Amino acid sequence: MTERDETKGEAPQRPSRERQPRERKPWRAAGRLPFIPFGLVPLVGLVLVTFVALAPFAIGEVQAPTEAAAKKAIEEVGADWATFNVSGQWVVLEGKPPSREAANEVLEAVRKAKAPTLFGDARPATWVYDRFTWTEDPLMPLSGGEPRIGVDGQSVDAPPAASTPPPTAEQIATCDLTMARLLSAATIEFDTASTSIGAASDNSLTAIARAITYCRGVLRIEGHTDNVGKAASNNVLSRKRAEAVRAALIARGVPAERLVAEGFGSAKPVASNNNDNGRARNRRIEIRSVHTPT
Question: Using an 8 Å Cβ cutoff, are 93 and 106 in contact?
Fold first, then answer.
């Protein structure tokens, strides 16, 4: 058998080719959003369901005891002239008190009122404020009828003058404490060496503006700095920052005549200026009650 005969029955050999893995690209319909937004839908739904579920609890277990305690306290002191509004654990008393003593009595009664809660009897009201309407100065009661004014030998009746008494020491202390708590919980932040208030402080300013509506009289916004830099520059910076906070609160509905701004520079430190932590504490905004603008 020849060599030709031996190879005659063999299949021809083809050159070997290594199969390359094919790269698969994920198919996505045109205009379709990636997975992440759709993946967040269940989470958003869970948040909404939780909110809906907790809303009745908040009303029933937080606000309802506050309303019950306020109502009971008003009835116990016989202040049928007083009405109240409740938002969460905040109580606002309204009405025309017959005297300063009557006003203080109902305020104190509501502040100390207790109501049954999940954890036993407790004081549900955290903040109690008043928006009383005064038709005459309760510190100077009228006697002998309405006042009369003499004009050229003639006497004419003068209408009773409406006046709002100045805030009491207790009201001032309550307001100052409220401001201090709000400012310590969330510091008003400024851009470095600037009077521009950071966007992160929006919620804090809104909460402060709301709390101011329950304070009486004029409030002073005080700006403070650390001792880094020239004293004159720090005084100017602290004053301008206080003015920026005042403008932000006015923009949120606080009457301009109720706010004054003042800068103290580094004159009133609350911590040591020898370390970063102390200097950070000294760079601050404070809000205090004052009787008249200064």
Answer: yes
Among 40-44, 98-102, 290-294, the range of highest mean pLDDT = 98-102
Query: 218 with 273, same domain?
Result: yes
Overall number of domains in the chain = 2
- Structure-derived torsion over alpha carbons of residues 98, 103, 104, 106, reported in degrees to the nearest 10: 120
Residue at 155 is within a domain: no
Q: What is the pLDDT of residues 47-62, one digit of tens each?
A: 666 655 554 545 556 7
Measure the CA angle with vertex 84, ends 81 and 87; round to 5°.
175
**CA-based torsion, 261, 263, 269, 273: positive or negative:** positive
Q: Which amino acid is at 132?
A: F
**β-bridge partners, 260:** 220
Backbone φ, ψ for residue 243 (5° rounding): -65, -35
Tell whether 112 and 193 lie within a shared domain: no
Ramachandran angles phi, psi of 175, nearest 5°: -65, -45
Query: Tokens 């503006």 label which residue?
Result: 209
Contact 117/133 with Cβ under 8 angstroms? no
